[in-house]
Amino acid sequence: MPRLMINGKAVDVTVEDDTPLLWVLREQVGLTGTKYGCGIAQCGACTVHIDGQPVRSCAMPVGSITAEQQIVTIEGLSADSSHPVQKAWAALDVPQCGYCQSGMIMAAVALLAAKPKPTDADIDAEMTNICRCGTYNRVRAAIHLAADGGVRRG
């Protein structure tokens, strides 16, 4: 029975080691903010953080994650959507349908942690999530807004 650290809490799950983390999060733990998109780690809708790094959870077998590693989902960023990236997303009306946005936000948070003042080229290189609605210009603008501190927490 694997033990996982999810959003700061130890969680025991009963699954096979090759079960994708995405299904553990959604079906075993009940954290449905992380979305299923493609199932082959291409679209990014399932992006979560493991030890601060963005990971496509649909292709991450739960057996490869240790009990010490910290998993953060969209629900773990803030209890009330007050994370600066979430606030920038809302301020600029980034989502259209919204399906891919939890993965986009998780990727953007990781990008800003690695590069607090990213250039457009940095954003284009690191934001590999796919959005069918095509809100990429608003995604870029929201990342810059969050990086510039234009939207404050709380």
From TrEMBL:
Keyword list (alphabetical) reads: 2Fe-2S, Iron, Iron-sulfur, Metal-binding, Oxidoreductase
Under the heading Gene3D superfamilies, the entry gives: 3.10.20.30, [2Fe-2S]-binding domain
Q: Cite the GO molecular-function annotations of the record.
A: 2 iron, 2 sulfur cluster binding; metal ion binding; oxidoreductase activity
Q: Which InterPro entries match?
A: 2Fe-2S-bd, 2Fe-2S-bd_dom_sf, 2Fe-2S_ferredoxin-like_sf, 2Fe-2S_ferredoxin-type, 2Fe2S_fd_BS, Beta-grasp_dom_sf, Diverse_Oxidoreductases
- Domain (2Fe-2S ferredoxin-type) ranges: 1-77
Q: Which PROSITE patterns match?
A: 2FE2S_FER_1 (PS00197), 2FE2S_FER_2 (PS51085)
Among PANTHER family, the record links this protein to: BLR6218 PROTEIN, OXIDOREDUCTASE WITH IRON-SULFUR SUBUNIT
Please state what the protein is called: (2Fe-2S)-binding protein
Native organism: Phreatobacter stygius
